[in-house]
Amino acid sequence: MKKYLLLLLGCGFVPAANAQHNEDSITIRKMANEILSNGNAYEDLRILTKTIGGRLAGSPQMVKAEHWGFKTLENAGADTVYYQECMVPHWVRGEKEVVKIVGAKSLNLNAIALGKSVATPAKGITAQVIEVKDFDDLEAKKDQLKGKIVFYNYHFNPTFVKTFYSYGDAVRYRGQGPSKAAQYGALAVIIRSMSHATDNQPHTGSTNYDSKYPKIAAVAVGLEDADLLSKQIAANPGTKVFIKTNCQTLPDTIGHNVIGELRGSVYPDEYITVGGHLDSWDVAEGAHDDGTGCVQSIEILRTYKKLGIQPKRTLRVVLFANEENGARGAEKYAEVAKENNEKHVFALESDAGGFTPRGFTLSMSTAQRNKIKSWSSLLMPYGAYDFDEEGGGVDVGFIHRALGVPMGELSPDSQRYFDIHHAPSDVFENVNKRELNLGTITMGALLYLIDKYGL
Amino acid sequence: MKKYLLLLLGCGFVPAANAQHNEDSITIRKMANEILSNGNAYEDLRILTKTIGGRLAGSPQMVKAEHWGFKTLENAGADTVYYQECMVPHWVRGEKEVVKIVGAKSLNLNAIALGKSVATPAKGITAQVIEVKDFDDLEAKKDQLKGKIVFYNYHFNPTFVKTFYSYGDAVRYRGQGPSKAAQYGALAVIIRSMSHATDNQPHTGSTNYDSKYPKIAAVAVGLEDADLLSKQIAANPGTKVFIKTNCQTLPDTIGHNVIGELRGSVYPDEYITVGGHLDSWDVAEGAHDDGTGCVQSIEILRTYKKLGIQPKRTLRVVLFANEENGARGAEKYAEVAKENNEKHVFALESDAGGFTPRGFTLSMSTAQRNKIKSWSSLLMPYGAYDFDEEGGGVDVGFIHRALGVPMGELSPDSQRYFDIHHAPSDVFENVNKRELNLGTITMGALLYLIDKYGL
């Protein structure tokens, strides 16, 4: 590709509808130039992922991550940094799981235990596998499941353009699959990973046991191995699988939200929250999920400070303590805000990957949404044009529900997210520096406008 | 990230403004479902890149690629497939180039000769390096350049959101840099790669010698090595570099555009062209540049055929013979179309990477652009919202200029393009299947609407 004749038209400025709009456009462009030229988020992420790595709540790595967050917020120029203590779950994977097809030639499957899953007995489980396409198929086969392993081979729907819809559709097999199988006497479950990746990485994520039924071991397998297993069963309906997992749920332990503030100049007791979750699955570096949300939030504070953009309200960057296997950090944050009768104007989250921005999901009144839409020409030059959806924000959802705070979440392009989500491939190398920075710019611009004009 | 509560709202359908709009929406959704569920483009690309690889015009690999293109268009269901012969340049790199800082500890630089560059003398060139920031700096230092190597350390501007603007700004150093240095007696040039990648890959691309001055060897270095060289020169202004390149320009040779047609049912003698270029740089697999444009164009034909979408005009898929170091394929295509007095309605190209779509650049009249904009709600669900720019389409540009044919080019998200553009890292693994498919959908939908309603 060569484009010698490409004209140097338009460098991101938008036509000024009026003087105010023009001033905002210039300020946002300054923020963008600073972030694109001198941004620190990518290097912050490198340190978080490469020197700490996976950081499940309760792990020693998560303690290191909290210290990293504290120090990084200080370096970014926060007026105040503090920890907010909360109790968090403490699930550990133990020795690596083994899942294999039993036979003349035993075949190892690329598998991973689901979060919160119990262990198999110490000697593992060997049993025949019954494949089911979906829950209806499970019901149809319920009389065959006693003493068997259930294999949920539910496919991630490729026809949704926004991949979070495919996830919303498929994730019930991870959440409810084990208990639904256990109620019919199954000994364990294998699920097809929630992904349409072109590789064979297995994807973890929490399951949720129904207390009415026995808790049985649950693993996910990579897509190629799910297809392989399905073929084996078709060729030999008596196919047996061996599963051994070594997970344990220990007593709850202490975790911390890490909070950094830029004090508001006019309304210091009004808050705007922006954050991501600091914890990640143990098997991944937690780069897109959700290292990027953390470093983007810190970068906004750094940029405001560097450029002398003084918010009227207090800007609070929150690195939430625990999202993956609970949401205890967010629960505590909302609880304390309610106890203290804090006034919160808006809460924004980035937890859908550090990909190139498309817009925001916004859960708020129509009038508030329309106010944000009236700024869309200021955000469009940086890639954000889509403001129409409700949804998003597991962590900020707590304060949204507890205090009625309007909330939003960055909507990055979603095509690559479920290739790496909860898989060992969620590593730093899969984050693109410019995409990460553009997400930060759109978030920083939205917060700037909300702080300036209210909601 | 978990989103148990994510609602299954909206699966990409747009609200129907009227019955016609609704029918179009349904047809486009069928195309999208087919491409997202059964698309072949990603596997086509795997074969092109992994079994053939780099394919510079005139190379044996390019001959293989032409055969691949012919067969793949046949398999996709084209009514007719044929070759269109043209003469193409025949430049060969020869043995791998060597560029190193001379000194007590000689340091190899990650370097690559520019396309069309001449070779150094057989024993190489060793000379002092003069660093210049830009052409103004070159003019200021013109009296120091005789017998030296000029190092253009011009930085890719990170503040343009659309990275093609950074390219348009920087590429003159690759195109004109060697001759501008040669006019002041320089022996060779080194340029900083046209990229803001976070790695050290060198990026090639054609240079253009001015016949008034001696032709001197030209290489590009990776960004880390550009910074290293700059530091060395700062520490020791007498720093010398050794350069040895082995390129040759052989006599022009025969190449072919590969063309596949779906014959129009109503106006078979009116044409809509869609294509990409089949050639690539020798050092890369040419995945994004421009394997993706080729497989997307073929996939549109396959999808129309599979779904029985019969175009009124003849749809011509063109895999252009030579874009990287000339544009001889496109030149020939326009020449033949003019000779035959063909009526062309529209020409579309994909040559900006197989990334997630953002829109189209459109070079046409305001009335025609407005017609396309009136369909934007049909394209938005697949990610295309930006229809405002002129530009694009090196290959279709020939028919645009020769016959006044309205032209367009897919505008994918550009953030990752210049990380890999013309570098050894432009490989299959850096293409995402869903992003590729979404680009195809938006292209296929635009062509469907133009064929149906005219322009």
UniProtKB/TrEMBL annotation, chains A, B:
Compartment(s): Endoplasmic reticulum; Golgi apparatus; Lysosome; Secreted
Entry GO CC: extracellular region; lysosome
A molecular function (GO) term: carboxypeptidase activity
Gene3D superfamilies named in the record: 3.50.30.30, Zn peptidases
| Keywords from the named record | Carboxypeptidase, Endoplasmic reticulum, Glycoprotein, Golgi apparatus, Hydrolase, Lysosome, Metal-binding, Metalloprotease, Protease, Secreted, Signal, Zinc, Zymogen
Pfam families, alphabetized: Peptidase_M28 (PF04389)
Which region is the signal sequence? Answer: 1-19
Q: How does it assemble?
A: Homodimer. The monomeric form is inactive while the homodimer is active.
Q: Could you identify this protein by its name? A: Carboxypeptidase Q
What organism does the UniProt record list as the source?
Chitinophaga caeni
